[in-house]
Structure formats: structure tokens, C-alpha cells
Amino acid sequence: MGTTICEYQPGLANVPAAESGISFIDGDNSILEYRGIAIEELAKKSTFLETAYLLIWGHFPTKDELDTFENDILHHRRIKYRIRDMMKCFPESGHPMDALQTSAAALGLFYSRRALDNPEYIRAAVVRLLAKIPTMVAAFHLMRKGNDPIQPNDDLDYATNFLYMLTERMPDPLAARILDVCLILHAEHTMNASTFSARVTASTLTDPYAVIASAVGTLAGPLHGGANEEVLLMLEEIGSVKNVAAYVDKCLANKQKIMGFGHRVWRVKDPRAILLQDLAKQLFEKTGHDEYYDVAVALEEAVTERLGEKKIYPNVDFYSGLVYRKMGIPSDLFTPIFAIARVAGWLAHWKEQLVENRIFRPTQIYTGNHNSPYIPIEEREFTK
Ligand code: CMC
Predict the structure, then answer these.
(1) How many angstroms is it from 363 CA to the middle of ligand 1?
(2) How far is the centre of ligand 1, averaged over its atoms, from the C-alpha of 256 (Å)?
(3) CATH level 3 topology of 227-326
(4) Is the CB–ligand 1 distance for residue 171 below 6 Å?
(5) CB of 11 closer than 6 A to ligand 1?
(6) How far is 87 from 147, CA to CA, in rounded Å?
(7) 369: how many CB neighbours lie within 10 A of its CB?
(8) 22-222+332-355 — its CATH code?
(9) How far is the CA of 263 from the centre of ligand 1 (A)?
């Protein structure tokens, strides 16, 4: 029997699962860095694809490197008609995260050669996944409405093209830039549940499409990426500022979590929530106010008043939905958009995991019985 080397920690809280040079959080001092660069700097000065390059290859691209990377992605945005046909058969009532997980996994059927020690293979997989995931999200959305998917437009940058494919019209440039910044803010976040899932899957040396599909499935849960959708449903349920206090009291009395608040690592307001709130305000200034923004601000005040001493503050999911809603994006696409961004971080972790890979094989603390007898079926009692 092997020896356990530390006490059991539910949720692996504070247990390091890898050594990583990709991102860093100081949850007391509001610091989030990608490859050592503050998220605020990247949000102001970078683009999503440049940030993805930085995360995945560990350094900023030169002008030529960035041009080539963007160009490669541009030329791989289309999805095979057989993948599109497969997606057409998905039930239109199915959740877009399930559609995305299935479609991402299906890429492995079409690009099945696995050569994890070949840098060209790694690069092609990175390009393909970053290029095709937005197209798959948009295609499923249009097909579930009974429309044909819109082909990617080669004249448009990454975020603009995604909004164009999704909404079937040319987006406002400010909205497209804001979406690009949202993608930067969601691109990476140290060892969270979906990233851990990606690394565990990567550690078996399976293909990168399986790695991304497993991470998408993990992100979908309401305690993780799925919270952004839940936040909007909650704001709709609250409906008006006057109902906020009663809603918070009800949640606390029922020990029900308030969506978009709290975090394992952040002990202050998540810096991404601060940036997203600012983006929401910029968007509302141009395109008109959103009544739910007032509800959200009142909710933040009420929760901070009651739970501030537990260090429960808005997380990244709290304001993102309001931004997407203003862009005309339905709430069940908020988490797929999170996934589009986080593919960059997952791929960075996939690549890092492969460098000195050892398969994840933790241990457990067995709490079951031993030497139990086999009970014949006629003697078994119904147990609830
Ligand atoms: N509303 C009310 N109370 C909360 C909340 C919340 N949103 N979050 C944490 N608490 C309380 C919790 O009840 C517990 O109190 P006590 O110690 O008295 O029992 C204490 O704070 C610690 O909470 P926890 O659930 O043990 O903390 P955790 O680190 O295991 O969970 C979390 C972190 C994010 C899952 C949790 O805060 C939560 O469920 N939040 C709501 C869902 C959400 O917004 N998720 C998005 C997270 S950020 C983006 C992402 O990861 O994708």
C-alpha cells in the first residue's frame, strides 16, 4: 500500500497540482498576471489572439509571428460539412455547452493523427481549436433556430467575425472590441476545475480534442463557468432594485449560493469583475442603459454588506452576462463564450503538461467496508 503524503483536502483546496509558469493570482492584492503581465495591461493594449499566443508560447509574438498566427487561424475557421451535418442532428433544445463539448470531441475523429512530440502537430492543433470553436458555437446557435450557419468572413478579425456569425449582422466596432477584451479576461485563470480537467486528460497523452472536450464539460457546471448564465437568470428573477434585499435574505436563510459571488482564490472583488463592470458601462453609454445593471449594482452592495466579512465579492461571472446581453447574445451562450476564451489557457496547460508529463494518479481515502459477504438476491432488502 502506498503512503499518503498529506491530509485529505476536500476540493483539493490549496493542494498544488502542477508547477506552472502560465498565470499567477494574488487573491488578497487583486493581482492576476498572464506570463507575468498584469491583466489590466493586456485588457488595455492587447488583442485576444496576441494574448492567446503569449499564453501558449510563453512570449509575445513579433509582428511577423502574430501575422502568421492570425492568418493561420483565419484560414482554419471553417468546419467540415460533416461536422456541421452532425451538429444539425443535435436537438435544438440541447444546451450549447453540450453541443460544443460533443463537436470539440468530434474534431478528434477528423484529425486523428496523434504526434505529441511533433511541434508542427502541436501548432496545427492549437490553430485548429482556436479557429474552429467559435464557428461551432455560432453554427449550433443558428441551426437550432432553423437557419443555415453563416460562413466565417475573412475580412473580419476574431471577435468581429464571431459576432457576425452569431448575430447574422455586422457588429458595432465598440461591441466587437469589448468582446475581444472579454475574451482576454477569460483566457486563463491558474489551476481551476476545467484547467485541472484539461491537465488530467492531457497527462494520459490522449489527443488535444479530447483534452478540450473534457475541459468544456467541466466548465459547463453552475459552480464554474455556468455561473454567468445563472447570474442573468437570477437578475431576471429579482427583476427590480426594490426586490434585492429580500432576495439576498431569502438566499442566506436557505443557505443558497448567490451566483456570481465568491471564489476559492479571490479574497477581494475579482479584478476581472472590475474591468467587466467598466466595459458594461462603456457599452451602455453607447447603446443605452440596461435596467438589470442597476439590479446588479444593488445586489453587489447588499451581498458585500452581508457577506463582505467572509470575503465574498463579485467574481468574473457577475458582470459578463450584462455585457453579452447588451450585444444581443442569448444567456445560454454566455458559457460557450467563456469556453472560446479559455481554450487559450487550456491549450497553454496542455502544452506545458506535455513537457515533463507524468500521468495524474492521485490516491483516495477508502471509507467503505472490507470482507463483505455476497448476499443472494432473494435475501436482499430494499435500501433507499
Ligand atoms: N453566496 C453565498 N455564500 C457564499 C457564496 C455565494 N456565492 N460563495 C461562498 N459562500 C460562503 C459559503 O456558504 C461558505 O460559508 P460558510 O463558511 O459559512 O459555510 C463560505 O462562503 C465558503 O464557501 P465555499 O463554497 O466553501 O467556497 P469554495 O471555495 O468551495 O467555492 C465557489 C467557491 C466559487 C464555488 C462558491 O463561491 C460559489 O458556489 N459561488 C457561486 C457560483 C459562482 O459564482 N461560480 C463562479 C466562480 S468564478 C468563475 C469560475 O470559476 O468559472
Answers:
(1) 26
(2) 10
(3) Cytochrome p450-Terp; domain 2 (1.10.230)
(4) no
(5) yes
(6) 13
(7) 6
(8) 1.10.580.10
(9) 6
pLDDT tens readout for residues 176-211: 999 999 999 999 999 999 999 999 999 999 999 999
Q: Is 11 left (phi over 0), alpha (psi -120 to 50) or beta?
A: left
Tens-digit pLDDT profile for residues 30-42: 999 999 999 999 9
Are 83 and 74 contacting, i.e. CB atoms less than 8 angstroms apart? no
Task: Give 151's contacts (C-beta < 8 A, 6+ positions apart).
Answer: 78, 165
For a substitution probing ligand 1, which of 235, 254, 261 has the most ligand atoms within 8 Å of its CB? 261
- Residue of 6 and 74 predicted with greater confidence: 74
The rounded Å distance from CA 193 to ligand 1 centre is: 14
Q: Which helix (H) or strand (E) holds 382?
A: none
Joined grid coordinates for residue 244: 434585492
Rounded CA-CA distance 163/32 in Å is 27
The model's pLDDT over 218-254, given as tens digits with 9 standing for 90+, comes to 999 999 998 998 999 999 999 999 999 999 999 999 9
| Interstrand relation of 31-34 and 37-38 (parallel, antiparallel or unpaired) | antiparallel
Q: Are 54 and 60 in contact (CB under 8 A)?
A: yes
C-alpha cell at 366: 477508502
Nine-digit cell string for 79: 468546419
Question: What separation in angstroms does the CA of 378 have from each of 358, 373, 382?
Answer: 47, 14, 11
- In testing the pocket of ligand 1, which one of 257, 269, 305, 318 has its CB within 8 Å of the most ligand atoms? 257
Name residue, grid cell 483566457: 187
Confirm or reject: Cβ of 228 under 6 Å from ligand 1: no
Q: Angle between the 158-167 and 48-57 helix axes, to the nearest 10 degrees?
A: 120
Q: How many CB atoms lie within 10 A of CB 45?
A: 11
Catalytic residues: 263, 317
Answer yes or no: is the C-beta of 223 below 6 A from any ligand 1 atom: yes
- Tell me, using a 6 A CB cutoff, whether residue 361 lines ligand 1: no
Contacts of 369 (CB under 8 A, 6+ apart): none
Locate the domains of the chain by residue range: 22-222+332-355, 227-326
Please name the residues in contact with 224: beta carbons below 8 A apart, sequence gap of 6 or more: 192, 193, 194, 218
Helix 334-355 vs helix 193-202: angle between axes, to the nearest 10 degrees?
40
CA 295, distance to chain mean position in Å, is: 25
Angle at 25 between CA 51 and CA 248, to 5 degrees: 105
